């Protein structure tokens, strides 16, 4: 069931958003019909969705017995239902039925942030043309941006530089040093890699797709060539800006102790070093998937599992975790590399 952006415009703080931003949120909003007695969430839980009650009544019961009633037909219905995390009360539907709107909380906050930033007089990146800001919505929807704090979104847009590009122009070349992180604002591009049989196109990029982050995270050379297929515009961050704004939150890091616990609980451990390094010394039970082959081989893995990736120092594993997170995996990088985890394993031996 879809929701009209006009319905979202009645809700706070969505009532202040530009129409195009409301329409984008409407596309991503899940409308749900539930019956009396349905528990929407429980006290102490944490979750990823903001819930608005569009019709019906909900009772909120606090652990101390205090009761809070929410009726969609009153002013209270304009506000999100107990959106503080962890949840402070248990929410139960008391009307015969209720209509709910669920919105990914992080994405909603980022859209609100974009809306407010783009209203500033000195803001350079908002375009009033129809559909011109679609690249922003797609970028903010990516799993990489999902981890970036709202404050980081502001810093990212402040540091972005726009460049015009032509069809056939090579933006990054395999084997060359990494200097920028890119986002396609307009146009399309191809990604190719050098194989024994010659250059082969392995992917295509469209508006809102990003590239160039792998080499920046791993502090290594480019692992593919990206060429424009059409004239367009790119947004880019220089290496220093990328390191300051995006690199710290881009990866979920684990200490050796926590990684060891996660592995004992069934997480898959991936060694992203070269096969020769893996043969010399590796964590017991780890699978070897070199970083340069990860994009091609990761499709074989089960997204229902958790993954811990490691290398010698943490740099290659940071790039691997970044790639896998973008593809929808729950993945963690081992802080400090292989030595720390081997020490943890040795302690248990």
Offer a few descriptive terms.
349 residues, globular, 20 strands, alpha+beta, 14 helices, four-stranded antiparallel β-sheet
Write the layout of secondary structure elements.
Layout: H1 5-8, H2 19-28, E1 30-35, E2 39-41, E3 49-55, E4 57-61, E5 67-71, E6 90-93, E7 97-104, H3 105-117, H4 134-141, H5 143-147, H6 150-159, E8 161-165, E9 170-172, E10 180-186, E11 189-195, E12 198-205, E13 210-211, H7 213-218, E14 225-228, E15 232-238, H8 239-245, H9 247-250, E16 253-254, H10 256-264, E17 268-271, H11 275-280, E18 287-288, H12 294-297, E19 306-310, H13 315-326, E20 330-334, H14 338-348
Parallel strand pairs: 16-20, 17-18, 17-19, 19-20
Antiparallel strand pairs: 1-7, 2-6, 3-7, 4-5, 4-6, 8-15, 9-14, 10-13, 10-15, 11-12, 11-14
Helix pairs in contact: 3-4, 10-14
Structure summarized in a few sentences:
The chain is of the alpha+beta class and 349 residues long. Helices cover 31% and strands 28% of the residues.
Explain this structure to me?
The longest helix has 13 residues, at 105-117. Helix 3 runs antiparallel to helix 4 and helix 10 (256-264) crosses helix 14. The model has no long low-confidence stretch (mean pLDDT 89). The chain is α+β, with helices and mostly antiparallel strands. The protein is globular, with a radius of gyration of 23 Å. The chain has a five-stranded parallel sheet with strand order 16-20-19-17-18. A four-stranded antiparallel sheet has the order 2-6-4-5, with no helix packed on it. It contains 14 helices and 20 strands.
């Amino acid at each position: 069931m879809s929701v009209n952006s006009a319905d979202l415009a009645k809700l706070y703080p969505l009532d202040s958003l530009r129409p195009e931003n409301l329409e984008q949120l409407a596309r991503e909003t899940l409308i749900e019909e539930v019956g009396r007695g349905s528990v929407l969430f429980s006290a102490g839980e944490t979750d990823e969705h903001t819930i608005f009650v569009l019709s019906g009544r909900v009772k909120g019961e606090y652990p101390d017995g205090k009761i809070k009633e929410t009726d969609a037909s009153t002013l209270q219905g304009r506000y999100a239902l107990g959106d503080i995390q962890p949840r402070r009360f248990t929410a139960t539907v008391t009307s015969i039925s209720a209509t709910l709107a669920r919105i990914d909380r992080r994405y909603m906050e980022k859209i609100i942030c974009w809306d407010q930033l783009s209203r500033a007089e000195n803001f350079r990146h908002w375009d009033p043309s129809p559909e011109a800001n679609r690249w922003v919505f797609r970028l903010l929807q990516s799993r990489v941006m999902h981890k970036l704090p709202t404050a980081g979104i502001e810093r990212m847009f402040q540091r972005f530089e726009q460049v015009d590009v032509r069809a056939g122009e090579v933006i990054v070349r395999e084997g060359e040093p990494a200097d920028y992180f890119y986002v396609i604002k307009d146009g399309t591009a191809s990604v190719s890699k050098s194989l024994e049989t010659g250059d082969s196109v392995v992917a295509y990029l469209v508006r809102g797709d990003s590239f160039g982050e792998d080499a920046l995270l791993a502090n290594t050379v480019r692992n593919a060539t990206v060429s424009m297929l059409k004239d367009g515009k790119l947004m880019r961050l220089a290496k220093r800006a990328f390191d300051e704004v995006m690199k710290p939150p881009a990866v979920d890091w684990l200490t050796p102790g926590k990684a060891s616990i996660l592995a004992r609980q069934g997480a898959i451990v991936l060694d992203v070093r070269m096969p020769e390094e893996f043969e010399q010394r590796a964590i017991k039970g780890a699978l070897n998937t070199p970083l340069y082959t990860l994009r091609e081989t990761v499709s074989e893995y089960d997204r229902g599992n958790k993954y811990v990736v490691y290398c010698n120092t943490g740099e290659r594993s940071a790039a691997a975790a970044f790639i896998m997170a973008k593809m929808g995996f729950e993945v963690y990088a081992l802080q400090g590399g292989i030595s720390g985890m081997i020490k943890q394993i040795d302690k248990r031996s």
